[in-house]
Amino acid sequence: MTDTARPTKIEVSALAKKLLQQDLAELTDREKRVLTELSAGRRISRNVNRLSDAEMSFGDRLADRVAAFGGSWTFIVLFLLTLFVWMGGNLLISRTGSEPFGPYPFIFLNLVLSMLAAIQAPIIMMAQNRQAEKDRTASNHDYEVNLKAELEIMLLHEKFDALTTRIMNAIGTPPAIASSDDNSKTPNLQGSGQ
Predict the structure, then answer these.
(1) What is the pLDDT of residues 45-97, one digit of tens each?
(2) Which pairs count as long-range contacts for 120-126, CB under 8 Å and 24+ apart, including other chains?
(3) What is the rounded average pLDDT for all residues in the chain?
(4) How far apart are CA 131 and CA 140, in angstroms?
(5) Do residues 20 and 150 touch, judged by C-beta distance below 8 A?
(6) pLDDT score, position 181
(7) CB-side exposure of 82: number of CA atoms within 13 Å?
(8) Of 24, 25, 1, which Cα lies nearest the Cα of 14?
(9) Is the sign of the CA dihedral 16, 20, 26, 29 positive or negative?
(10) pLDDT band at residue 194, thresholds of 50, 70 and 90?
(11) Taking 80 as the threshold, does the pLDDT of residue 188 lie above it?
């Protein structure tokens, strides 16, 4: 089947029965998608980071930048420097006899810090929610890629078993297939002809 050909529902249903031992109707949409792509021989992997970055709004990008800056050492150093300058400047101004703009016990500073926290907290939460959604998307994508890889390995095992059987029949030795507890087929190549 070529990359442009669309697999039929019968082909996908046959793969579902063969590989997953389930009817097509019992599968999730993700599992159906994986089987469809597997049947068509197409890749399923994609760069989920690029996809989610393309869907970001201005607010999402702004929230990410604010959260990145708010969680950086640059912010902590600037924040501490601002606090020391504010408190030190007000104490120096009050000692000269002038009226400080935020005298001890720094009530105005407390108001500014409360407003900063009130604005910064929801922005950081927006960034965290967006990151959680990005992680869920990546997790779903990982599941699809892993499922497709597992199914392809199962198909390769079947091809290898068929090839082993053909080779053994060609040299006149029937293959001895040992079954294990996990129902996988492992050819026993230690036949009597060796």
Answers:
(1) 888 877 777 788 888 888 889 899 988 999 999 999 999 999 999 889 988 88
(2) 120/66, 120/70, 123/62, 123/63, 123/66, 123/67, 123/70, 124/63, 124/66, 124/67, 124/70, 124/71, 126/59, 126/60, 126/63
(3) 83
(4) 14
(5) no
(6) 45
(7) 11
(8) 24
(9) negative
(10) very low
(11) no
What's this model's pTM, rounded to 2 decimal places? 0.62
Q: What is the 3 state secondary structure string of the chain?
A: CCCCCCCCHHHHHHHHHHHHCCCHHHCCHHHHHHHHHHHHCCCCCCCHHHHHHHCCCHHHHHHHHHHHHHCCHHHHHHHHHHHHHHHHHHHHHHHCCCCCCCCCCCHHHHHHHHHHHHHHHHHHHHHHHHHHHHHHHHHHHHHHHHHHHHHHHHHHHHHHHHHHHHHHHHCCCCCEEEECCCCCEEEECCCCCC
Contact 153, 141 (CB under 8 A): no
Question: Which tokens belong to 5?
Answer: 């050909």
Count of C-beta atoms within a 10 Å radius of residue 175: 16
- Per-residue pLDDT band for 177 (boundaries 50, 70, 90) equals low
CA atoms of 191 and 100, how far apart (whole Å): 97
Give me the amino acid identity at 39: S
The phi and psi torsions of 52 (rounded to 5 degrees) equal: -70, -35
